[in-house]
Design goal:
mainly alpha, Helicase, Ruva Protein, domain 3, Cyclin A, domain 1, globular
Length: 343
């Protein structure tokens, strides 16, 4: 877990000038012991079960964190990505070497230069890491033409490359993410992101009606204040190790973990939100809570994510998603009718 040096973490990210080294050192002193214990248990598990199947034990292990050196391998196994790779072993190479839509390639070329400017591996435009990122994004855009490419994917694919250090593995994990785990997040109108923001507000109204009312009174909508949480799947939003712990659960349990994390962030900071008396002050709280000491302590934060929101049955999440899909569909139909009339 130790960084390359005191100012750069193990994933190549520079720490900001105002980085709280004292809090970080306190956290790491305890977390390194946790990591050592988890690494030994994972080593035994992977030796005993070279093919991981869903079980209460594997679920428990995933929730407690996958060792960084095993993440790429385990993500492949606990998702369906490995099966897709086995079924289509040459698909990635065919997409990289095949004919391209030059408009998409041009958009990706421009966008990847803005990927993780604070990361030493993505800083140099001549760096092979940027070429790998371009290959993965271009391949995905031509594999899934209904999504193609949209902003935010460069951060997601970039993090996959930092972890797996393998283009083909990163490609199939990206396919798994966008086609099964968050299938509507990257549609042209970001329907999945908008739906889940409404789902979270609905759940908040049931669990913490005072906070929900405070947001409503001050005109706070998660689509305005928290969309990046979902578009980037919490990468480039929360501290790197915390985001990766979320991804561990995302690959195993699916997108409900994203709702749990969002609710946890809101509920843990409820008092701060309630003390903020207007729209501007509340937005300032949203900016601060994704980089404070609570989210830095990834192990404790993930434990909170499975306690603070309470029970979230998948049947209920599914029902709410269906409800708000219909709400958004009707809204878009009405907007289209208004546009047609105005013409």
């Amino acid at each position: 877990m130790a960084g390359i040096n005191g100012e750069i973490d193990q994933y190549g990210f520079e720490r900001p000038e105002d980085f709280d080294y004292e809090s970080y050192e306190t956290f790491m002193a305890a977390y390194l012991r946790v990591l050592a214990r988890r690494a030994k248990k994972w080593e035994k598990l992977l030796e005993a079960k070279p093919v991981l199947r869903h079980s209460s034990k594997v679920k428990r292990y995933v929730r407690k964190g996958i060792p960084s050196e095993s993440r790429g391998e385990v993500w492949l196994m606990i998702s369906r990505a490995k099966q897709k790779l086995i079924e289509s072993p040459l698909k990635y190479e065919e997409l990289v070497q095949g004919d391209k839509d030059e408009k998409i390639v041009d958009i990706i070329d421009r966008d990847i230069k803005r990927t993780y400017p604070e990361n030493i591996y993505f800083r140099d435009v001549k760096n092979s890491q940027l070429l790998s990122l371009k290959n993965v994004l271009v391949a995905f855009a031509h594999h899934n033409k209904s999504v193609g490419y949209c902003q935010g994917l460069n951060y997601v694919a970039g993090m996959l490359l930092l972890i797996t250090k393998d283009e083909k593995v990163s490609f199939w994990l990206l396919v798994e993410m966008l086609q099964r785990l968050v299938p509507d997040y990257y549609s042209s109108s970001l329907v999945g992101v908008r739906v889940d923001n409404l789902v979270i507000m609905d759940l908040l109204s049931q669990k913490h009606p005072d906070l929900h009312a405070h947001f409503k009174t001050n005109g706070i909508e998660l689509n305005l204040t928290a969309s990046k949480w979902f578009i980037c799947l919490f990468v480039d939003v929360l501290p790197v190790e915390t985001a990766l712990r979320i991804w561990d659960c995302l690959f195993y349990e699916g997108s409900k973990i994203l709702i749990r994390v969002a609710l946890t962030l809101l509920i843990l900071n409820k008092d701060k939100f309630l003390e903020a008396k207007d729209f501007t002050a509340i937005c300032a709280v949203f900016k601060k809570i994704t980089n404070d000491g609570v989210v830095l302590q990834c192990h404790q934060f993930m434990q909170e994510c499975f306690k603070v929101p309470g029970t979230l049955p998948m049947a209920k999440i599914k029902s709410l998603r269906e409800k708000y899909h219909e709400v958004i569909r009707k809204e878009e139909e009405e907007m289209e009718q208004k546009r047609a009339i105005s013409k």
